[in-house]
Amino acid sequence: MAPPPEVAPPLTVAPEWATLRRVIAELRGRREAQGLSRTALAQRVGVKTSYLAHVERGEADPRYMVLADLARELGTTIGEVFGRADSAARPWAQR
Question: Were 42 and a residue from 22, 33, 49, 60 both cysteine, which residue would form a disulfide, CB within 3.0 to 4.6 Å?
């Protein structure tokens, strides 16, 4: 009888990645709330729709300037979005 397969330990997510995921989730939520399709937003920002889809699903690491452009097109700033995401990650560190 073969030994049972080893189970990989659970992956831990660095706080920075968790913050980035919250930023992307907020930007996606804003896009959806405004009724914008990925295609429309991608055209406004100058990226391919498939790239934006990969970013929103967490399959691609976006450049900072892409995030900043997305935020601008969605009526906010990347600083505000990162600030909210960071505050959500550390509720004890309210300003």
Answer: 49
- Least confident range of 11-15, 24-28, 37-41, 77-81: 11-15
How far is 44 from 57, CA to CA, in rounded Å? Answer: 20
Which domains are delineated in the chain? 15-88 (1.10.260.40)
Q: At a CB cut-off of 8 Å and minimum separation 6, what does 60 contact? A: 51, 54
Using alpha carbons, list the distances in angstroms from residue 25 to 2, 3, 11: 43, 41, 20
Burial state string for 53-65 with b = 16 or more CB within 10 A and e = fewer than 16 = eebbeeeeebeee
